[in-house]
Amino acid sequence: MSLWLLLAVNSITLGGLLFLLSAGFSLIFGLMRIPNLTHGSFFMLGAYLATSLIAHGFGFWIAAIVAGIGVAVFGGVVERLVLRRLAGAELAQVLVTLGLSFMVADVCLMVWTGDPIRIDTPAGLRGTTAVMGFGFPTYRLAISAIAIVFAAGLWLLLDRTRLGAMIRAGVDDPAMARVAGIRVSRLFTIVF
Prior knowledge:
Blueprint: H1 2-32, H2 39-55, H3 60-81, H4 90-112, E1 128-131, E2 134-137, H5 138-160, H6 162-172, H7 174-179, H8 184-191
Antiparallel strand pairs: 1-2
């Protein structure tokens, strides 16, 4: 029985990781109609930046936040300078984002090589946590919890907040949203 529960937790953890990776792509493609093939490369770049920050003495959580903000800024620059000029040209967007993905991958290969980089699990997430008398890896439970929090947060953001209403309005009818005072281009950069 404990083996089945452990496998279930592992499956939920993997599903949570896949959700965290795909939520941004789904949001960008579903709302903005941009087939962003650099999405995975942005995640890779963020991971490498975080490992470099950890190697320079930053803590795990600080490195993850700083790397995430850095990649978000880079993504905003890409959207504003490159993708905005290709609005409505899906094939061009696919080709440009695929090319950018190759460039990011090559830069990562040049800077960090192709060798695996190992980082230690944060101290608070090591070991096991007892749930209903069974021991589960704390790290995997935390990933599942983070995925659930992000899923709920995204849902609340898009369905229950003014920002979510502005995003939906900008997607559904950008011209009317601009007339209502919404800066659609800046909003799309933030979403990207």
